[in-house]
Amino acid sequence: MTDQTPNKTSDTTKAVNPWSKVLREFAPLFIFFVTYKLSDIYIATGAFMVAMVIAMTVAWRVDRHIPLMLKVTFIIVMISGSLTIGLSDPRFVYMKPTLINGIFAFLLAIGMWRGKSYLQLVMEAGIPDLAKKGWMIMTRNWMYFFIAMALLNEAVWRNFSEDIWMNFKFFGFIPLTVIFAMAQTPIIMKYSKQDDEKA
């Protein structure tokens, strides 16, 4: 039984195309940012919605799988985008990052309350050898990060101009996410099952 788990993880890892992952996660945001600089928030929002549809299509066509995080993001983008364009009120798209990060934090908190790591469900293919304690620590850290990002988004859009919010969304949120993800490396190394076996 224990011998079958690594095989499943290995198969999942092979099935996921890394270029597809980068495209579906960063291309829509890049299109949103560039379109905004060339036009306005409403046209940019429409372009963002179209880009998300393309990202979903690419995920399915290339990987034959649509990740849960992409599904949640897609639903919120479609709802907030439709309200922004339909009501001519950009506040809905301003609050989109708050909602997305808030939902992710809530789901991770529910999992921790149940003694499970929902983070493991979406990241295990990329980190197959992490022990349960490591996953729980990572889950707690990401939960706090999502909460912080939700609060930060609220602070920026409510206190600064639309242009500053857009710039920070692209040049602030992405680097912060990358830096935070890299900061989890010591946890991955410490709770690696392979390291435990060598010891």
Describe this structure in words.
- The chain folds into 2 domains: about 1-85; about 95-199, no CATH class.
- It has 11 helices and no strands.
- The chain has helices at about 5-15, 20-40, 40-65, 70-85, 90-95, 95-115, 120-125, 130-160, 160-185, 185-190, 195-199.
- Estimated structural class: mainly alpha
Helix content: over 70%
Number of strands: 0
Q: Please report the distance between the alpha carbons of the first and last residues.
A: 23 Å
What coarse outline follows from CA principal-axis ratios? globular
**Percentage of residues in strands:** under 5%
Uncertain spans: 1-15
Order of helices and strands: HHHHHHHHHHH
Number of domains: 2
- Mean pLDDT equals 85
The helix count comes to 11
Largest beta-sheet characterization: none
Supply Rg.
18 Å
Briefly characterize the structure.
This protein has 199 residues and is mostly helical. It folds into two domains: 1-84; 95-199, no CATH class. The chain is built from eleven helices and no strands.
Give the helix/strand layout:
Layout: H1 4-15, H2 18-38, H3 41-63, H4 68-87, H5 91-94, H6 96-113, H7 118-123, H8 132-159, H9 162-183, H10 185-190, H11 193-198
Looking at this protein, list some descriptive labels.
0% strand; 199 residues; disordered N terminus; mainly alpha
